[in-house]
Fold this protein.
Amino acid sequence: MCGIVAYVGPKQAYPILINGLKRLEYRGYDSAGVALLEEELLVYKTKGKVSDLEEHVQNANLGGTIGIAHTRWATHGEPNQVNAHPHFSQSKEIALIHNGIIENYALLKQELQTRGYVFQSSTDTEVLTNLIEDIKLNEGVSLFEAVRIALNQVTGAYAIVVMDKNDPNTLIAARKGSPLVIGIGQNDYFVASDATPIIEYTKNVVYLDDEEVALIRRDKDLKIKTIRNQEKTPYIQKLEMNLTALEKGGYEHFMLKEIYEQPTSIMDSMRGRIHLEQGTVTLGGIIEYEQKLLNANRIIIVACGTSWHAGLVGEYLFEDIARIPVEVEYASEFRYRNPVIYERDVVIAISQSGETADTLAAIELAKSKGATILGICNVVGSSIARATHAGTYTHAGPEIGVASTKAFTAQVTVLTLMALRLAQLRGTIGRSRFMQLITELSLIPEKVEQTLKVSKKVIEIAEKFKDVRNFLYLGRGYNFPVALEGALKLKEISYIHAEGYPAAEMKHGPIALIDEEMPVVVIATNKGTYDKVVSNIQEVKARKGQVIAIVTEGDKEVKHLADYVIEIPETEEMFVPLLATVPLQKLAYHIAVMRNCNVDQPRNLAKSVTVE
């Protein structure tokens, strides 16, 4: 959601900024812009893609060794050129880019209007820009101090970078609730909303914490203060990200690449955590909190979107093998319904980016009630990693496609390891069964590799159903969250309406939708409630629905009933989501491609949702 890039140093800024914006395109956006300072402070911006911005500035003056750039995902004001960032102050001496939402912007705007400020856009960002200018002029302070003072008057979330026409050597950056990272290069600095635009220039970074303001000056050391004027020592970290992971590697889309990376990403999420010889599971990040887990009254899982579906699989896992009650909550609803939280509760927060605003808000609420908070996220140094008491990284590697694929299976893998470890601690699973499960789990990457070979059948199904308007996905038990995730993937990237249901709930409403035009995807593997699922398929066929079934290799009964069958390898029931999800990801992908949809950047969606 929104992308920030900034640069100051000896190099020409524009090529670095435009390349950085391209690296951030995966986050989702509707307009793009850049500000450059040489003799003049010049702003260029346009509705559309970064490529539209490049075309827009073809004959423009693009000189200068300092600049800021932005891709916007609209919140306040429609997506157009006027509302695009960067925003000028009224004097056109200050330019600012901003991720997040200023919640009290209307009051601030009204006050500034009484002082003679006229606004060009509908954005909250322009209000902040003029507020900074007003403080700078009226209080006679530096830009750094003006930003710091202004942010004490702001309610909401922000990541900002500010530049001043009268100071060609300085950038000011600040954050609260929206990520911002500063790269320290050879006599230059890079600023971005995540590390992807920085990695090709430097691996030395500083992650700003909430309510911190950075003074970034050419040829001088980085200086950081809090908005309360407390000086902080910058903590420099090494990036673990690999540049090649940010490239498509010969695949047509990042999403397809990431689907095919799942054998590796699942293995990386297990690496060093399963010890077959000793018969143990170890999660180093939560060892100090194992006693809290052991003594917990219940587990509450908070997440959004795909991560919420992973949490649902986690609910089945923890209750099934660790015998502890679990509640799975939409983070976006959790904080607003006055939830009952006890000190002996353990809250597990799940987020691919580690920056999801709703999930961060849920964490803060749970912490205020004294609960223990554990995080599961993919991005090292992210806000959730810092806000939780402890946690576990998924090690899925960068996920560029907006629709999560490998992040989901990595999250489910980590939840499986946590459930197995807790079951071992609680004594709810025998050693023989435990060994059986961890041995089978270690084979899952190889079985995902086999599952990826079903491309021909998936493409055939996609060709048949690419023009339908609705899909229904059904599953029971562990496969119910798989049905939800399959439906979400299809609607996210192909814009076909799709719904997931527990298979038994079909006859309590959705069965009214079924006719010869309705494709129904059923996860019908040979475990658990297989016979019941077969009955559900018969109910669909009796109403002339078209059935696409995900079955276990060698299945005979469902093959006779379904119109189309996709086989996956035999595995334990609790591990089926790691396999059954894969062909559903591929089905959504191929349907979207056949419909000429932008697979990696679906309309209206953002990768890291940093507003509530």
In short: The mean pLDDT is 91. The two ends are 12 Å apart (CA to CA). Residues 406-426 form the longest helix (21 residues).
